[in-house]
Amino acid sequence: MIYPVHAEVEQQMRPGALSEQGFLGPTESVQSVLETDEQTLAKLGVTHVTIADRLETILLNVIQQKFTDLAGWFDRMTSFPNFDAPTIAPQFSLNNLPDLGSGYLVGKLHIFIKQWRGFQECPWGCPANSRLGSIDFLILNRETGESFTGPGLIVHLIREHHFFEGQQSPYRVDPAKAIRVLAL
Length: 184
Fold this sequence. Notes:
By secondary structure, the chain is α+β, with helices and mostly antiparallel strands. Helix 3 packs antiparallel against helix 6 (154-161). 37% of the residues lie in helices and 12% in strands. The protein has helices at residues 7-12, 30-44, 48-68, 70-76, 130-133, 154-161, 175-181; strands at 104-106, 109-115, 135-141, 147-151.
């Protein structure tokens, strides 16, 4: 069930408030976004918790690899993809896959992570989770060539608020695409 969102929370989601790019577009309704995404999940038969759990497992796996091999972490860091410009995500296909020498593999998924110095706050005002709130990621399914990007905070937003970000946000994780890439 989706609960109404207060106007103050929706204002915090607009571009220039908690985030330069925003969690929503300038005119989007968070309630409408939530309802549309809930319908998509129901149609596909996958819950928001299933997606959040899988994302968290993958991202924590990569972070664990980072701390297991700190020297190797710097070798695996890359300016590809450019997380400074989220609207310019690379386009992959089975004929155009990135080199295995960068990023991390978790099964058939190829993950790229950018660690930031600060962390993103939840627009609902939940206590900060800097563990994942300070990263952006790209997850590529090497068997299908399909990928998606997102912020680490999305795990919390999906699990606790059923929120995948607005259609007009460059940080949106499309639930149908996430289900396909993660093979859920």
